[in-house]
Amino acid sequence: MLNKVAIAALVLIAAGGPAIAQDCGSLPIAPVIPTASEIQSKTPADASTSQHNAYQDIKRWQADLKDYRACLDSLTNSQKRDLQNEQGASKPDKDKIKGIQDNIAQTSRAFDSSVDTEEKVVNEFHAMQTAYCSRQDVNRASCPKT
Q1: Does 47 fall in a domain?
Q2: Given CA atoms 66, 72, 78, 84 in this order, what sign does their dihedral have?
Q3: In this predicted model, what pLDDT tens digit does every residue of 41-86 receive, in sequence order?
Q4: pTM of the full structure
Q5: Is the residue at 104 inside a domain?
Q6: Is residue 75 part of a domain?
Q7: How far apart are CA 85 and CA 143, in angstroms?
């Protein structure tokens, strides 16, 4: 019985593999970071909670980004293998080569976009953290030492 379940699982994975490899989905949705002015206007307790929640949201989001980028890397490697195989064929199809190159460029742009978005979110967090740490009425134990 266990062997039948294992075989069925392998068949499902093999059948679903190409679909998964073709699409990594969309860029994970970035968390909303409170602005510096929002942090300044909150009570000390709310400011602390907002800063902590933003940190936790970013960490979860970065874990999703890691998975997304790993998928993009895998997809790029597969596309590069396809390109090499097509270029090495006895009669390379120029249209197919162009399509593969376009797919590689699109995957690269998606990866670059994820990096740009992460940089923007991290900069927003640092601006919020600077506003939080400039307050005298909050616990600044989480603030960078100056």
Answers
A1: yes
A2: negative
A3: 999 999 999 999 999 999 999 999 999 999 999 999 999 999 999 9
A4: 0.77
A5: yes
A6: yes
A7: 53
